[in-house]
Amino acid sequence: MSLTVYAPASMGNVGVGFDLLGGALAPIDGSLLGDRVSISSAETGIHLSLAGHWADKLPQDPKENIVFQCAEFFLDKLNRTDGVKLVLEKNLPVGSGLGSSASSVVAALYALNEYFDRPYEEQALLRLMGDFEGKISGSVHYDNVAPCYLGGMQLMLDAPEKVCDAIPTFDDWYWVVAYPGISLSTAKMRDLLPAQYDKSVAIDFGRYLSAFVHASYRQDPKLAISVLKDVLAEPYRASAIPGYEESRSALSEIGMLTTGISGSGPTLFSITDNLQTAQKAQAWLDQNYVETGKGFSHICKLDTQGTRRED
């Protein structure tokens, strides 16, 4: 038996929802923006090989690769010693703000769960994904793994019965994402944030996030855009991302509705409900934000499918 799983790229935070909101991405031109993991049987042990555009940026020792570690983690949970052969097709750059590690983790654990006849149901598997992702990043937060796994726009609940739930989305929005070609450590970008916030900032954060969720259910795009503001992270991270602030201003002049940092950066996202405006924004970003040969941009919609088998 062999099978292949695809896990899409994701935006953590989505600006307004630090650690609490995440969206999965699907380029409208059908481009692959996410990792694939294939699994098949082996006589003994865990075997990993690498493919894909960004494979050469990963540790070449299989035991240092998170997909290899996912297999060890999963088999240990099940008390199994089966031999498995894994292939990671790495299509996302590391440290990009597009949920690169989450994509690999989700694809690997989803593939392993399918291969071993689904010992974990959806929410249990999601918690397993979060636990493993937490081992990498130092703390458990689901705003990448949840949308990557389940698709759409996911609001983190962390309730006993449910980790997250989907909220309604604006189907006519185009999400232009641009990765400039540099990597930023999530841990280092977290270190830029203050240990404490003023009460007024905490109130604004709660107000903007709750208003965005309210606007999503009301399907009020004007309200949603007006409150899609990041008061917790962007003020401290923007200057650490080369060219971000200039790009945000230029995109506003082009007519984009709002712009923010995807995850901890350096990828940015910018929203419009007009395809021609999205194309103008993408062209500007390709010329001014993306380093040729190292970065990329895509016009996306939200990926409503999430992680899925492709075999």
UniProtKB/TrEMBL annotation:
The keyword Phosphoprotein does not apply. Pathway: Amino-acid biosynthesis; L-threonine biosynthesis; L-threonine from L-aspartate: step 4/5. It is an enzyme of class 2 (transferase). GO terms for molecular function: homoserine kinase activity. It comes from the Bacteria. The keyword Nucleotide-binding applies. Its EC number is 2.7.1.39. InterPro entries: GHMP_kinase_C_dom, GHMP_kinase_C_sf, GHMP_kinase_N_dom, GHMP_knse_ATP-bd_CS, Homoserine_kinase, Ribosomal_Su5_D2-typ_SF, Ribsml_uS5_D2-typ_fold_subgr. Pfam families: GHMP_kinases_C (PF08544), GHMP_kinases_N (PF00288). Belongs to the GHMP kinase family. Homoserine kinase subfamily. Catalyzes the ATP-dependent phosphorylation of L-homoserine to L-homoserine phosphate. This is Homoserine kinase. The lineage of its organism: Bacteria, Pseudomonadati, Pseudomonadota, Gammaproteobacteria, Alteromonadales. The gene is thrB.
